[in-house]
C-alpha cells in the first residue's frame, strides 16, 4: 500500500523531486487509483495553468475519471508507466461502447461523459510526467469525436416552465430558481450567495476559476431575495447541497405538471441566456452576463430560432 493517499496534494508537491518520483512510480506500478488521484491533484493545484484556483468540480471529475481508467488499465494489461501507443485509443473505444448506467438512461455513455473521462486520464499522464515518473503520452493521438447533436438541442432552455413552476415553490426555492433563470447563475454560484453579496440591484458572484462578476438582478429576483432571512449564521441564503436543491425543484416541477420536462438547473441558466440574447442580439453582452470566457461557449447557451434571419434575407 502506498502512502500517497494519506497526504494532501500540497504536501506531495513539497516533496523533493526524487521522493515525488518514487511515490508516483509506486502508485502507478501497483495500480493504486487513490494514490494516483492524489498525485494528479498535487499537479493540478501547483503546476497547472489555473493552479490552486482550479474548479473543485473539475478536480472531482478528474478524480472520478482516474478511478475509472486505472482499473480498466489493470484489467486490460496496460502498464501505466509504459503504455502502448494505441492504449489511449483502446480506452476511448471502451468508453464509447460502454452502456450508460445513469438513472433512467439507455444506450452508451454520452459524448460529454467520454470526453470528461479522457480529460481526466490525460491529466493523470501530465501529472506523471510532472512527477518524473514517465514521459508516456498515450492519449496524444487519441481522438474523442464530438457529439453531433448540439447541447442546446439535447438540453434546451426552460421557457414557459419557469413561471409555471415558480407558483409551486416556497419563497427560498423560488429565489434560488430566479437566481438561475433570471440572473443566469450556475447552481453552485446561486447556492453560495450571501446577504453581503447583494446591493444596488446587483449580486456579486464568485464563479469558475475564482473570477468575480457583478450581475444585475430583475425586479422579481430582487423582491424574492429581499424577503429572505439568512439560512445560516454566516449570512448564506441557502443551506442546501446540490442534491437537496435539485430534489426540491424536481418536486415543484411535478406539482406544476412539468415533471417530464425537468432537466436540471442548467436549463434555467440557458433560459436567461436565451431571453437576454433575444432582447440584445449580442452574444458578447450575453457572455459577460453569464460569466463566459469565450463567446463560443455562450453560443451553446442560446436557443436561436431556426429561421432567425428569414426577414433579413427576404430581399436578397
TrEMBL record:
Q: Does the keyword Cell cycle apply?
A: no
Pfam families found in the cross-reference section: Phage_int_SAM_1 (PF02899), Phage_integrase (PF00589)
Q: Where is the Tyr recombinase domain positioned along the sequence?
A: 152-314
Q: What is this protein called in UniProt?
A: Tyrosine-type recombinase/integrase
Which residue stretches, if any, does this entry annotate as coiled coil? none
Q: Name one GO biological process term.
A: DNA integration
Q: Species lineage, top-down?
A: Bacteria, Thermotogati, Deinococcota, Deinococci, Deinococcales
Query: What keywords does the record list, in alphabetical order?
Result: DNA integration, DNA recombination, DNA-binding
Recorded hits in PANTHER family, A to Z, give: PHAGE INTEGRASE-RELATED, TYROSINE RECOMBINASE XERC
One Gene Ontology molecular-function label:
DNA binding
Q: Which Gene3D superfamilies match?
A: 1.10.150.130, Intergrase catalytic core (1.10.443.10)
Could you tell me which CDD domains the record lists for this protein?
DNA_BRE_C (cd00397)
Source organism (scientific name): Deinococcus terrestris
